[in-house]
Amino acid sequence: MAFNVNNFTGALKLGGARASLFQVNITNPVNGSADIQVPFMVKGSQIPAATLGKIELPYFGRKVNIAGDRTYEDWTTTILNDEDFAVRNAIEEWHHSMNKPVANTVDLASASPSAYKTDAQITQYSKTGVPIRVYNFVGLWPQNVASIEMNWETTDAIEEFEVTWAYDYWQVSGGVTGDGGTT
User: Which domain holds residue 112?
Assistant: First the structure.
């Protein structure tokens, strides 16, 4: 028989990976005081795409495509805001260290990219709690700290905000799936 639901479900290893089983870790190079809370406060994220550019070479009236340069999409996280604003404050301080809001300058200590760039990880877990894949973001910094929406009509909700992160590249390591895509 061409259509058999058992063949389909049997092909899903352990029932398929679950989008809700993840954890984010970010090391803040400016103020690491909120780093310990980040894994609990990042409620949403994604594994960003990587794209290889296409170089078209005409040859005798036909275009031949070869792989070009790799680009990485920005990474976005959705963060819950606690009343102490610990994570938001740490990210804002980091953001401000790269460009002071009033003076439009940067401290000499923060001027070098190595002073404000850091690494981060998003770990995908199996339903048994075992890490199955770890994406490492290298050269990460907060590009955009989004607004926190407030409204008198909003009840039974915790504030949240998004941060868009720029980074140099990501690579896969750890977990049961090995080191696919690291070179």
Answer: 22-173
- CATH number of the domain bearing residue 142: 2.30.110
Report residue 16's pLDDT band, with 50, 70 and 90 as the boundaries. Answer: confident
**Residue 93 located in a structural domain:** yes
**Pick the residue with more confidence: 179 or 114?**
114
Cβ-based burial of 122 (10 A; exposed 0-12, middle 13-18, buried ≥19): buried
What gap in Å lies between CA 179 and CA 109, rounded to an integer?
Answer: 35
Predicted confidence (pLDDT) per residue in 141-156, tens digit:
999 999 999 999 999 9
